[in-house]
Q: What sequence folds into this?
C-alpha cells in the first residue's frame, strides 16, 4: 500500500512539475527584406499574445546581427520546444540550415507567420516545412500551387510566379480540418480582420494538412479558389503550424488570428492544445479584434 501512495505522490509531483513548466519558445526575427512589413512591431505583438496565455517562456532572437555577419550566430535551437518565425531576411549559411533541419527532424516545433513563408526560396528543407511559400522568384520548380476547389485540396503545376494578394480587406475563413487540435471548438466560418489574402502560393505540399481556407475574390485580384490560410505540417518528428495571416498590427490583433496562433504554437511545441476558444471569437459575419494590440501601431488602426 505504501508503495502505491509513493507512486501516486511521485505521479502528482511529476504532473505538477510538467504543468508548471512553461514552454520554451524562441521568436526568430530579422531585418525584413521587405519594407512593407514592420517586423519589429510584429514581434512585439506576437510576444505579447504568446505571453498572455501564461504557457510560454519567450526569448526573441534577431539574426543576423547589425554587422550582417553570421559567423557568430548560433542559436541553440535544441533548448526551445518551438521557434516562431517572423523572419524574412537574409539567406543562412549551410551550417545553420543543417542545425535547424536536425532540430526539426528530431521533434522540434516551428510556427511561420505571414511573410515568413516568403523567406528562403532556395532552401528545400525549409520549403518542405512550410509546405507553400510565395514571392522571391518562386515559380514551377518550387512546386505546384495548392488550393481548395469544391471542398477538395487541388494543385496546379502550370508555371507562373508564386504569391499575390489584392487590397487589404476583412475576409471570411472556412475551417477544413475541424478535428485537428488547433481547430477543435472553432466555428466553421469566421470573419478575419483586414489583412492581405495570400494567393498562388507554391511548394512541395508534403505532409501538409490544410486547416482553413479563404475564398479569393477575382474582383480583388483573387484566383476564384479557396486559398490555404492555416496549415499543419510534419517534418521528420517535427511539427509546423503555418499561418499566412498577419500583415500588420490590425491583422495581428484579430481574435481569430490570435487564437489560432496561440493554439498553433502550443501544438507545434507539444502536439496538444489545452487553450479554450475565447467568447470574443469572430462569427461568420462579424470581425472581432483587440483594439489595444492594434493600437500598438503608432499609425493606429486606421482601417476601422
Ligand atoms: Zn504582408
A:
Amino acid at each position: 500500500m505504501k508503495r502505491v501512495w509513493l507512486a501516486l505522490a511521485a505521479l502528482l509531483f511529476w504532473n505538477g512539475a510538467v504543468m508548471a513548466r512553461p514552454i520554451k519558445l524562441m521568436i526568430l526575427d530579422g531585418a525584413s527584406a521587405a519594407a512593407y512589413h514592420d517586423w519589429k512591431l510584429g514581434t512585439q505583438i506576437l510576444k505579447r499574445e504568446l505571453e498572455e496565455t501564461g504557457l510560454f517562456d519567450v526569448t526573441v532572437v534577431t539574426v543576423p546581427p547589425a554587422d550582417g555577419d553570421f559567423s557568430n550566430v548560433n542559436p541553440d535551437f535544441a533548448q526551445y520546444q518551438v521557434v516562431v518565425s517572423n523572419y524574412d531576411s537574409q539567406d543562412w549559411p549551410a551550417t545553420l540550415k543543417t542545425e535547424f533541419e536536425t532540430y526539426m527532424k528530431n521533434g522540434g516545433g516551428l510556427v511561420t507567420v505571414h511573410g515568413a513563408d516568403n523567406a528562403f526560396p532556395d532552401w528545400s528543407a525549409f520549403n518542405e516545412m512550410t509546405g507553400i511559400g510565395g514571392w522571391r522568384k518562386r515559380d514551377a520548380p518550387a512546386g505546384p500551387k495548392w488550393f481548395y476547389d469544391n471542398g477538395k485540396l487541388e494543385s496546379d503545376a502550370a508555371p507562373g510566379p508564386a504569391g499575390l494578394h489584392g487590397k487589404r480587406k476583412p475576409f471570411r475563413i472556412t475551417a477544413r480540418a475541424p478535428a485537428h487540435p488547433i481547430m477543435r471548438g472553432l466555428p466553421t466560418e469566421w470573419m478575419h480582420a483586414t489583412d492581405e489574402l495570400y494567393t498562388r502560393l507554391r511548394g512541395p505540399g508534403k505532409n501538409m494538412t490544410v486547416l482553413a481556407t479563404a475564398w479569393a475574390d477575382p474582383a480583388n485580384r483573387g484566383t476564384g479558389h479557396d486559398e490555404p490560410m492555416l496549415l499543419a505540417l510534419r517534418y521528420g518528428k517535427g511539427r509546423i503550424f503555418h499561418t499566412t495571416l498577419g500583415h500588420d498590427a490590425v491583422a495581428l490583433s484579430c481574435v481569430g488570428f490570435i487564437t489560432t496562433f496561440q493554439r498553433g504554437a502550443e501544438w507545434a511545441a507539444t502536439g496538444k492544445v489545452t487553450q479554450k476558444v475565447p467568447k470574443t471569437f469572430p462569427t461568420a459575419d462579424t470581425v472581432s479584434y483587440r483594439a489595444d494590440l492594434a493600437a500598438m501601431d503608432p499609425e493606429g488602426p486606421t482601417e476601422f
About this structure: The first helix runs from residue 2 to 20. The helical segments are 2-20, 39-52, 94-105, 124-130, 249-252, 255-270, 291-294. The CA atoms of residues 177 and 211 lie 5 Å apart.
